[in-house]
Write a structure and sequence with these properties.
2 domains, 3-stranded mixed beta sheet, single chain, 48% helix, elongated, Arc Repressor Mutant, subunit A, 3-stranded antiparallel beta sheet, 11 helices, alpha+beta
């Protein structure tokens, strides 16, 4: 199989999105990417990210590929878990404390930082609207994050998402209470649950 055929196959497998690092790890020289761009088979949308002209630009996937440390959180995680009807106007992400957030904020992201020992707690994989896998927090962690950041959140969104969570068959109230202890919001979570259950 030629490098061009390999690249075509990778494009099909990745739904029209290619990253320079994926191409390099497949042993395909960068000159083939340049040639595909010249032929109109690919468009370079930013450093290290290429998209086929007929592919949908999956901003969430591309963003996480470029910045491996970000985890989608808060209202964006609500959206990914179908706990809200609101499309996020800007994405909310969480990074470990000490991560330089300047460029993330410049990109229009709502950035939250948390100490390293809590950063990975509750990480799961979700699908973007274009069926690509991205890292986000599970429903229980997301609820704790929202309650912790309730002064920065729309109270209507918080209340609606809690009601939706309570109706879910796949909810895990034990895990929710465990996380609420970790994040020191157990009292607030209990009072919300008492009202809703």
């Amino acid at each position: 199989m030629t490098h061009s055929e390999k690249l075509d196959l990778m494009l099909t497998k990745n739904n029209g999105v290619l990253l320079t690092e994926q191409v390099a790890s497949a042993g395909i020289p960068n000159t083939y990417l340049t040639e595909f761009v010249r032929q109109g088979k690919l468009e370079r949308i930013e450093y290290g990210v290429y998209v086929a002209p007929d592919a949908f630009e999956d901003n969430m996937y591309i963003l996480q590929q470029r910045r491996k440390k970000i985890i989608f959180s808060h209202d964006t995680a609500l959206y990914l878990h179908d706990l809200t009807d609101r499309d996020p106007l800007s994405y909310s992400v969480t990074v470990p404390t000490g991560y330089n957030t300047k460029t993330l904020c410049e990109d229009g992201l709502m950035v939250f930082s948390i100490k390293k020992e809590l950063y990975e707690l509750g990480v799961t994989v979700a699908q973007t609207p274009f069926d690509r896998k991205i890292r986000t927090y599970n429903m229980e962690r997301t609820i704790c994050d929202l309650i912790r950041s309730r002064n920065q959140m729309d109270i209507g969104v918080l209340t609606d998402s809690l009601k939706r969570y309570i109706r879910r068959k796949d909810k895990n109230l034990t895990l929710l209470m465990q996380y609420s202890e970790n994040f020191q919001v157990a009292k607030q979570v209990r009072s919300y649950m008492e009202v809703l259950l």
